Amino acid sequence: GQNIDQPTEMTATEGAIVQINCTYQTSGFNGLFWYQQHAGEAPTFLSYNVLDGLEEKGRFSSFLSRSKGYSYLLLKELQMKDSASYLCAAMDSNYQLIWGAGTKLIIKP
Amino acid sequence: IAGITQAPTSQILAAGRRMTLRCTQDMRHNAMYWYRQDLGLGLRLIHYSNTAGTTGKGEVPDGYSVSRANTDDFPLTLASAVPSQTSVYFCASSIRARETQYFGPGTRLLVL
């Protein structure tokens, strides 16, 4: 079957670095997406990886290893506004997104 | 309109009633999607449309129907609501099926 696994919750300190891991298993693979979702709001797009390696976008970076079925989202210089849920989603062979349950990131001062 | 809009923002509905959730986008995106989001679960695809005039079933289509008469609108209908359909419903769109999806603000539905 198709499955996405990511930690339920993580806690980090303002100004620090945090890595949120995601493992996936899908029928075919057409890329890995990360979204940010603040409480009570819609998901917003953060990053997309389809080739192995690291994609950097400001304070956020995303990594993909297709052979391991693994991705991570790296957040640097954490700010209080980064407190949110981070959703990992893999696109299968039918171009449908399979979503993880999300990782709730709590930032402490 | 800028982006994707959904209506209503929230709704309390009696079980057995019919309800249509509206979704409109002005980005001329070809593909549109309906998801539900429940606590502790990932977003689950209900129905999708890759282009105007076509629709497809997602992971959890039972009890829901959709239509895509034009590019901009993608309404979701609950024919006879049941309490298990209590959820937050998100509409999304993408330029094409394989591209990044962008989400509307959501509709919070409570079925009693």
Walkthrough of the structure:
- The complex is a heterodimer of chains A (109) and B (112).
- With 109 residues, chain A is mostly beta strands.
- Chain A is 0% helix and 57% strand.
- Chain A has strands at residues 3-5, 9-13, 18-25, 32-37, 44-49, 53-57, 60-65, 70-75, 84-91, 97-99, 103-108.
- In chain A, strands 2, 4, 5, 9, 10 and 11 form a six-stranded mixed sheet that branches. Chain A has a five-stranded antiparallel sheet with strand order 1-3-8-7-6, with no helix packed on it.
- The mean pLDDT of chain A is 97.
- Chain B is built from no helices and eleven strands.
- In chain B, a hairpin with a 6-residue loop joins strand 4 (31-37) and strand 5.
- Chain B starts with a strand and ends with a strand.
- The chains are: A mainly beta (109), B mainly beta (112).
- At the A-B interface, strand 5, strand 9 and strand 10 of A face strand 5 and strand 10 of B.
Give the fraction of residues assigned to helices of chain B: under 10%
Radius of gyration of chain B over alpha carbons? 13 Å
H/I helix tally of chain B:
0
Give the topology string of chain B: H per helix, E per strand. EEEEEEEEEEE
Helix tally of chain A equals 0
- The termini of chain B sit apart by 32 Å
| Strand content bin of chain B | over 45%
Structural class assignment of chain A: mainly beta
Mean pLDDT of chain B: 96
Order of helices and strands of chain A: EEEEEEEEEEE
Biggest β-sheet of chain A, characterized? 6 strands, mixed
Low-confidence stretches of chain A: none
Write down the Rg of chain A.
13 Å
The most extensive interface between chains reads: A-B, 21 and 18 residues
Residue windows where pLDDT falls under 50 for at least 5 positions of chain B:
none
Structural class of chain B: mainly beta
Strand content of chain A: over 45%
Q: Please give the number of β-strands of chain B.
A: 11
Assembly type of the chains comes to heterodimer
Helix content of chain A: under 10%
What is the molecular shape of chain B?
Answer: globular
